[in-house]
Amino acid sequence: MANPGRAGPARSALRGATVLAAVGALLLVGFPLVELFAAAVSQGPATVVAAFRGTGALQAIVTTLLTGTVVTVFSVVGGTAAALVTERGAQRGRSWLRAAVLLPLVIPPFVAALSWGQAYGTAGLSDDLLGLPLPGVYGLAGVVTVLTVHAVPLVYVVAAGALASRAEPDLERAARSSGASAATAFRTVTLPLLRPAIVAGAALAFITTVNAFGVPAVLGTPAGVATVTTRIYSDLVFAADPQAFVRVLVLASGLVVLTLSVVGVADVRDALGDGLTRTGAPLGGAVSGGPRWPGALLWGYALATSVLPLLALVLVGITQAVGLAPVPANWTLGHFRAAMSGLGGPALARSVLLATVAATTVLLLGGLLAALRHRRGGKPLATMATLTFAVPGSALAVAVLLAYGPWLRDTLALILIAYLAKFWALGHRPIAGAAGRQPPELAWAARVSGAGPATTVRTVTIPLLLPALAGAWLVVFLFGLHEVTMSSLLYGPGSETLAVVILNLRQLGDVPVTAALAVLLTGMVLLATALLAVASRTSRRLVSRRDRA
Amino acid sequence: MTVAACGQASTGSGSQPTSGGAGGDTVRLYTTVTQETVDAVVAAFAEAQPDTQVEVFRAPTGELNARIAAERREGGLQADVLWLTDPLSMQQFDAEGLLAAYAPAEVDAVPAEYRTDTFTGTRLLNLVIVHEAGLDPAPRDWPDLADPAYRDAVAIPDPSFAGSAFGALGYFAETDGGLDFYQSLADNGVVQVPSPGEVTSGVAEGRFMAGMTLDADARAAAEAGSPVELVVPESGAIAVYSPIAVTESAANTEGAEAFVDFSLTVPAQEAIAGTGWEPIRDDVEWENEPATQVSPDWPAIYDRQDELLEEYQAVIGG
């Protein structure tokens, strides 16, 4: 009995789990993507070539690649620098500073885009107050800037995590005391140790940027800047001619090939494993001393990129009518009432429902894959789920629409399928990572002491995994709550999500109600995050108290 | 009392649910009409005929067109009733055989130029000029929008997105015999935005000095306190009628006809007027009638829609 985990009933349970996971992967990922490529290829090469000619499709691909590359470079530099400041510098209020850097992560990207337009666009807050609009907020420059602001914390999380857990500050101190200058120590010690984290962060930034729809739709489309995602949207949602549909198929397949040729499975695995979901983990190892100004710079950055834009959006949402000065005499809550009484209320309920069901199901699916991580069939399935996270949402949504549209059109189930496929890895990676760090001796001890496999999982494995499970649930819940790339392609009568309602209202020119709904959505996301932060801190405190006892 | 009134109304239009088939007493309505207006008419219909449920899908014209195209690709149009913003979009569906010939019960209350054998006007949308409050000189007619004084600061709605803008395009193409008006706007740096609503809010924000929009929209903004003024062009507000039709493939023809009938009744027309739009019936009170109103000869531009949009996009840009 060297390994009690492989006893008879457990083995048959694992075999059942393998079959279940394989069926899940096939239905969620395999079948839709095969349908997509089959449909694209079935058009024949001539039609495919024609679909590109004179329609700006090529231009959209170039713009997407350009945006993806530039944002990745900027956010790697910015995110790594921010991580060095908070983790290596001597900053007062370090945990608040970390929260400030992470803030853009919990602001839905399209809300950030709306708020930037209101803060820095023509006739925006900065224009009204100082006569200074930022040129190019609507256009490629604005798209790149706002996407960079959103991607910086993604790189930051991975880099800061690595600085805390892998890059030993002792090594840097050793280098310094052996006579290396600060720059040399950074170049020869810190950076090489950070390299894997930076590569993972870059992959995450690139995937997120190529996947982005809300930001280019809000800031790019009005200026005539199209990315592949906005192009797919306008061709699928706004064009009635058959040629446009062919273009959708071709662009969607192209987008899949493009992303998967840039991003490898290892990159995604690293990014998701040690990244997003370990934000709550205690970070440490700061080198004391050094200047204070980098911290001040970070505070200024957070203020200018997140706080002020959100403030501008709130002001628009509470001001009686468009064009009135945002002073207390003109304030009203009427737009919030209007927002909830129209399509907003039901859409909000739908989004919460979708996000809850998606997060819970993703945990089950992710746990299933994590349980299979030592099985023969488990690896390829895990690879498949991980790679699907890199597939841009637009392409995934078109694939799901082709595969399940005929049966599930206009239902929330259609959107849910897309969410599960996309977010599976968000559940799987952190659970697998945490399970991998768990000493197997604990489970063996339980089995040797006479506990059955089910009892062992219930009393040993799951309690130890609880923080990872909670973190993964929250991340999927937040992603699902403000998801717009896929739901904007899949919604129908009665299945509009909140983000879809907000974007549609905006196109109709209802500025204040759009702002009110966007503020409500952001408020909910912030609240959920804050609750989780408090809960995880409390549970950590309880755990450490129990350990001491 | 309510029950008695409802009973009367439903026996009057003869729409007792008799068929047991799919759809039954549910009517599926696809529309581009403003949400507030659809909600008001559907609520009035629910009061008159509580047995018939109306399932609404509302989207802008371009989006609805794409949806209908997708449904036809996948096996057939799912809607029982189409209620659109402009006759040009509706006529395209008619030409493709998607509409059933139907004369609603109170069709005689609708002027003959606002209906065909298959679709009937329900309301009028008036395209007017909106400009910043206090703008000097203020535009007085459409050609003024090409004045260099407003260079790069005039906005127009996109005809491939908004049906009313498509109607306006039809008007200028038919009365001018070409797209000279749009060419002059393009030469003056006109900005195209998706919807008339965005024209109005853009002018209110100060992003644009003036633009083309809908009267109901500009009036609502001015009443809410936005710094905008509405101008009925000297040549007249362009009246676009918003047609409704029963589809050829309707699963619930009876229910569809009942809803179309209802849209022309006085209560429905009052609901339409109550949400800011000009009712199609003259016998329903409406205080915001523009001083002059013009309308193109719609049949003269039927079947030229694709060509018109292509020419327009060549002038303004996709």
Low-confidence stretches of chain B: 1-23
Please outline the major beta sheet of chain A.
none
Estimate the mean pLDDT confidence of chain B. 89
The gyration radius over C-alpha positions of chain A equals 24 Å
Helical amount of chain B: 25-40%
Global outline of chain B: globular
Kindly state the percentage of residues in helix of chain A.
over 70%
What's the end-to-end separation of chain A, in Å? 33 Å
List how many beta strands of chain B DSSP finds: 11
Question: What does this molecule look like?
Answer:
The complex is a heterodimer of chains A (549) and B (318). Chain A is mainly α and 549 residues long. In chain A, 77% of the residues lie in helices and 0% in strands. Chain A has 23 helices and no strands. The longest helix of chain A is centred in the middle third of the chain and has 38 residues, at 334-371. In chain A, helix 1 (8-41) crosses helix 12 (242-262) and helix 19 (440-448) packs antiparallel against helix 20. With 318 residues, chain B is of the alpha/beta class. In chain B, helix 2 (35-48) runs antiparallel to helix 10. In chain B, strands 1, 2, 3, 4, 5, 6, 7, 8, 9, 10 and 11 form an eleven-stranded mixed sheet that branches. The radius of gyration of chain B is 20 Å and the shape is globular. At the A-B interface, loops of A face strand 2, helix 3, helix 7 and helix 8 of B.
